[in-house]
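Page 42, continued from yesterday. The earlier attempt failed because a stray header line got pasted into the input along with the sequence. Redoing it now with the clean sequence only.
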Amino acid sequence: MAINKKNFVVANKYVGQRSDSVIHELMPEYSRAKIQSWIKKGFIKIDSEKFTTKRKLIGGELIDVDIQPEEQANQFEPEDIAIDIVYDDEDILVINKPANLVVHPAAGNWSGTLLNGILYHFPKNYKLPRAGIVHRLDKNTTGLMVVAKNEVAQFNLVKQLQSKSVYREYRAIVWGQVMVKSGVINKPIGRHPHIRVKMAINNINGKEAVTHYEVLERFSIHTYLKCILKTGRTHQIRVHMQDNKSPIVGDPSYGLKKIIPTKAMTENFKNKTLKFERQALHAKALGLIHPITKKSLKWEVDLPDDMKNLLELIREESEQDLSEESFKINKDFYVSGEQVYEDNGDLEFDDE
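This time it went through. Structure tokens are written below.
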């Protein structure tokens, strides 16, 4: 049974466009695949009649939608998972996500996710697609996320994300000396051509991906960056930093598999940097227009302790003025801006 109904009159600006594409634009909180499924099953009708997904619109049609319960979401159980709440009102929830927390259930992680925790602390969210989640952070990326608490808020937040008006600022600790003070990486991202669980720069099938970055601190063999997302592609900063030849410290998929330092590096420094247990990436600031009050809001949170400790260690080690001999230089000179690091032939990207 449908839990809700919506109807729209097709505006003239949609004349000639595919029906499934237009309905998805009108209801962005639902995926296009979900819209297509509802069309095929007769849950969406045009002028009270069934139609195909490829039908072109002529303007003035009445579209009726029987919104179906989220079949998969209904299977997820509420779980008493701690949530660090930064802001909470009747319409939205802003949280500070810790490391090692998956946002949404999927293969291999059907429980113990942020969604399960949201269902426990905010039971009414079970009515919303993805329990009100409108964007995600990777399992081991920390920081700020916004979650909708009602349908109107969710629709509005999705629209803001699509229009690229949501402000998302990150901190990243990367390998190499990024010499350009600030820059923009504008390279499309899509599925890796050979490893389907990974993303990659894809000039053929990739989607627009824009990351602005600024050097906050530059050390002997690391750089501390501010990154601002203008788009929100999967693994965007991680892929862009890898392509920039300044991969994020600790990144298991897009980081460096081997960096071979000399004895000039202390054992503690080796262990803390080469064995950092996650990508050193944190969503520090989030800004948006409140979906109901229309007020401009912004939140900031501190770096998590593991990144604070890593940064302090790098600062201390950098004071020893490690030279380029910290690497066994042999050949390929990698560049990020002007200079990053050298490769001894064993340096490679991890394909896990």
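Notes: Residues 119 and 126 are 6 Å apart (CA to CA).
Reminder to self: strip header lines before submitting.
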